[in-house]
């Protein structure tokens, strides 16, 4: 492919992407593919010669697109949003084109310094504590950030001579599965996770946490890690971070705040309460790739104590040493699990400059308003129960019995007109409706609600 | 940013990238920035209003570019290559534009199926064993793939009742630092790594490995993991995988082959020997993002036993369950550490169709030929020692004493005309010259060699 062919193909692809967003409202949200459908349409052998860009773009449109479930659809209410903006797509394009690897300061100084600066801008924009300045790093995902927090906490404990087998971690049943996975990866094991009871709003009960920690200490075990959820996955419940910090302050327990979904809402000054207490946490993560229009992967992770993180993750063979690092420049490879790293700060910079934080804040406010209205419609309809309080942009509902709720979820998703996610909340099957696509407008939510009502009518007995 | 503004900005950025590759030959390879230079030029406060795309593109060109060390330069000989192609940049652009998250089959069937198919195409193209079909996954980096191999091996051992504290791993001092890091992350610890002696060509000595394993078994410890390097980082040495497999076959020891750099050379049929013995390995990784023109991150990882990997990494909360998964569809989230995942298979597909495997194979052959010629120049110049045999595209050299070699490396890198990496090989400081940029031609290597000679002359005593 010559530079001229690249220019031409690149312009075509940019236009194809713009067209995709023009038509996405009319495309089915969920792919209608059955397992094997794409595989059957593509050659099992690699190509013997090259293809034209037109052929590849044609296949992208004709074969791949129908096999995708459209996370960018205005009718996307599943999992959590992963909304993207045009500015972010351009930022990733610049990153791809430059093709640098910023694992150390010296391997591309601007990649490291722009990342530090963007993380510092985000400290200001989210109202995070000043001790997070120069203490942030972009991770691929909140799961990985939580693992890094566990590793830093484990390092702190084992450096003090505690055997890893004595370590105990705490979270509610509402915490993200990455807490379990992180403990497993770190070799501590899920058996060392204590499930702290939650209240009627699915929030961790601090008195129960304190009692469990006391019991473990009395039994000679070593409480080392608590994960507080700021917007849990099943219900967007908010663990009481200040009350948890009352327990962990001055103790050996590392307090990690997983605000993957909801922390970013602090871009709206009136919503900064979402991060209450974070100034007393040891680490904090929120995802720019969920609700800020920045392409996955862009998970924003801060630690109070940089040394705890880098002590856990730094390895320095001769081929990775540099004079700059010896003089104190940040080498982000020591803040993460892989060695190589993309120049992810570029997309954050593009979004903040081109799309603008005001537009993001307005989008978030719009989602909250739509979710609140949906919540009111659910309350007014006696066929539906609200299974959890609507705290932000997630409405969690159920019909009278689990079988009906499951049937309703399947019917919604099979319609292709909206995509939702099932969950189980304290034993009850529920439907999660998360309003978070950049393109979602009030009329989308209203049509979806009407459709849900019609489908429920057909499912409910008599 | 409106769709029309996106089209216009996107076309501009595509052209800027094409222009970048037109002028890259003349740009200094190493950034001349001192720590803090970028930070000083950018506002410490986030912007209060949005900027024009022209302003951002201007800053990218004027402020960011001089702060980058140019991994795509034809004069890039540092670390390992991370070469990219226009086809890959387009593949990543398509991925960014679509904005889907394929962590489960059901969250975008085509993302999962294209990945499986691409990994199967690569099995054919690299001549890998047929039992790797449907057993491959794209990871972000070889470091992470090696960690996943360690976790799978740990799972297999601990599921059989072995305490993790009894596990012992083996590799030479030439193995990548990710082996140490992976053992640390997994909670096994670097203290459990036995450094196996190497021969004069920096290859693991199988008889020593066998003896160390026997000793550990006799002492009641549990050998569980060997990492064999296929193109080690310091010297591109090749551990004798078939001889190692003679030792691990039928044992409880997981054999992981880290072919991050050199495995991909098997795209040239005459070079398939690089993967000799891999059919007897438990896992294998090679990086498409090093020497295949696919943008980072695209690390190709296969395991013989899928269940060992997914047993180590699968967590199934209610909100992640699906009927498709229950019926056997692949959910790649269970093959990796994070939950979310990009649609990385697209860039591999674009490269194989648009750039073509023949062009990649020819590029690799060209690099080998240039490295061989450089090797001959070094041998003919009695000022220089070859510190290790040139096995593929890496030439590792030294002057008479470490201080001179270090001074030479600094002088080369400060020239901005070429970038190389220092290493220490069995105690001796050496300069690594790795020929692997897509744009490198014979005249680049020749000029670089002449420059190295001139700089050495100025450094060497009288």
Q: Which strand order spans the largest sheet of chain A, edge to edge or round the barrel?
A: 1-7-6-5-4-2-3
CATH homologous superfamily caption of the largest domain in chain A: Type I PLP-dependent aspartate aminotransferase-like (Major domain)
Helix-strand category of chain A:
alpha/beta
Assembly status? homodimer
Q: What is the helix tally of chain A?
A: 16
- Which two chains touch over the largest interface? A-B, 138 and 138 residues
In CATH, the topology of the largest domain in chain A is named Aspartate Aminotransferase, domain 2
Order of helices and strands of chain A: HHHHHEHEHEHEHEEHEHHHHEEHEEH
Total beta strand runs of chain A: 11
Protein architecture, described:
Two copies of one chain form a homodimer. With 462 residues, chain A is α/β, with parallel strands linked by helices. Chain A has three domains: 3-67, Up-down Bundle (dopa decarboxylase, N-terminal domain); 100-355, Aspartate Aminotransferase, domain 2; 357-459, Aspartate Aminotransferase, domain 1, CATH 3.90.1150. Chain A has 16 helices and eleven strands. In chain A, the strands form two sheets. The first copy, chain A, has a seven-stranded mixed sheet with strand order 1-7-6-5-4-2-3, sandwiched between helices. In chain A, β2, α7 and β3 form a beta-alpha-beta unit. The relative contact order of chain A is 0.15. The mean pLDDT of chain A is 96. At the A-B interface, α1, α2, α3, α4 and α5 of A face α1, α2, α3, α4 and α5 of B.
């Amino acid at each position: 492919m010559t530079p001229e062919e690249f220019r031409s193909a690149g312009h075509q692809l940019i236009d194809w992407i713009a067209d995709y967003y023009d038509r996405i409202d009319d495309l089915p949200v969920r792919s209608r593919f059955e397992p094997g459908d794409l595989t059957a349409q593509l050659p099992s052998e690699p190509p013997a010669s090259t293809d034209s860009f037109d052929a590849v773009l044609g296949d992208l449109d004709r074969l791949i697109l129908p096999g995708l479930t459209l996370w960018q659809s205005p009718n996307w209410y599943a999992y959590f949003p992963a909304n993207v903006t045009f500015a972010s797509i351009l930022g990733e394009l610049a990153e791809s084109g430059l093709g640098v690897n910023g694992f150390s300061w010296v391997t591309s100084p601007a990649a490291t310094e722009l990342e530090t600066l963007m993380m510092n801008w985000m400290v200001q924009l989210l109202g995070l504590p000043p001790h997070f300045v120069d203490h942030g790093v972009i991770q691929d995902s909140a799961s990985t950030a939580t693992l890094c927090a566990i590793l830093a906490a484990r390092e702190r404990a084992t450096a003090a001579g505690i055997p890893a087998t004595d370590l105990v971690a705490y979270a509610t049943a509402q915490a993200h599965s990455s807490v379990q996975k992180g403990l497993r990866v770190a070799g501590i094991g899920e058996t060392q996770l204590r499930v702290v009871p939650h209240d009627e709003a699915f929030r961790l009960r601090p008195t129960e946490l304190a009692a469990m920690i006391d019991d473990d200490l009395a039994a000679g075990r070593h409480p080392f890690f608590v994960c507080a959820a700021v917007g849990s996955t099943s219900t967007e419940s908010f663990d009481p971070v200040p009350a948890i910090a009352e327990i962990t302050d001055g103790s050996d327990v590392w307090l990690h705040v997983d605000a993957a979904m909801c922390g970013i809402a602090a871009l709206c000054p009136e919503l900064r309460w979402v991060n209450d207490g974070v100034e007393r946490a040891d680490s904090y993560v929120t995802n720019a790739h969920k609700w800020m229009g920045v392409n996955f992967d862009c998970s924003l992770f801060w630690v109070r104590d940089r040394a705890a993180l880098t002590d856990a993750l730094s390895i320095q063979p001769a081929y990775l040493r540099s004079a700059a690092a010896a003089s104190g420049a940040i080498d982000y490879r020591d803040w993460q699990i892989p060695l190589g790293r993309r120049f992810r700060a570029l997309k954050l910079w593009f979004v903040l400059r081109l799309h603008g934080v005001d537009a993001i804040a307005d989008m978030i406010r719009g989602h909250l308003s739509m979710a609140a209205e949906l919540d009111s419609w659910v309350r007014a309809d006696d066929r539906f129960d609200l299974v959890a309080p609507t705290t932000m942009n997630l409405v969690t509902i159920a019909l009278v019995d689990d079988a009906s709720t499951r049937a309703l979820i399947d019917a919604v998703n099979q319609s292709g007109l909206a995509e939702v996610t099932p969950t189980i909340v304290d034993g009850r099957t529920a439907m999660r409706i998360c309003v978070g696509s950049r393109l979602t407008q009030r009329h989308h939510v209203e049509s979806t609600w009407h459709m849900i009502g019609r489908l429920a009518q057909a499912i409910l007995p008599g």
